[in-house]
Sequence to fold (163 residues):
Amino acid sequence: MKKPSLLACLALLVFTRSAWTDPLNLPSNSSRSANEDQVEDRQVLEEKLPPEARKRLREVLDSYSRQAYPDGEQLAERRRLMHDRMQERLNNADKSGVGSISRSEAQLRMPRLARQFDQIDTNGDNIVTREEIQAARDRAAMERRETARVDNPGTDSRSTKSQ
Fold:
């Protein structure tokens, strides 16, 4: 049996996505965020692809990722270490032990967090939770991707390889 190439799988995914979500192929709502699109894409895949096909697609994409980015495992390990270090720093800063950082704790133990406290504390309760910190990190990453996409429209902003 001939195995489908990654390009064929991705092409099938791209060209059939609009048929699944919008059979009339109407213009998309540009006010939607990339995160909303990702959630919708995942829901469509879960609804339309059988579990075996989703598993196979994941295997093909993982294989491609390992070939295209051979240092991907090292990057993943670095991300895990960074995450662990951040958790440790948050635990050390949280002297009250309630699982969140007050403004005074941030000023004493995490000055960079303190400088951005108001942007991170989205509900204005003068306490930053791990969820608010993660949401702020996600927003910053999304802004970096959007900036890279605007500045370099023909390139992949996640690429770490030089051409």
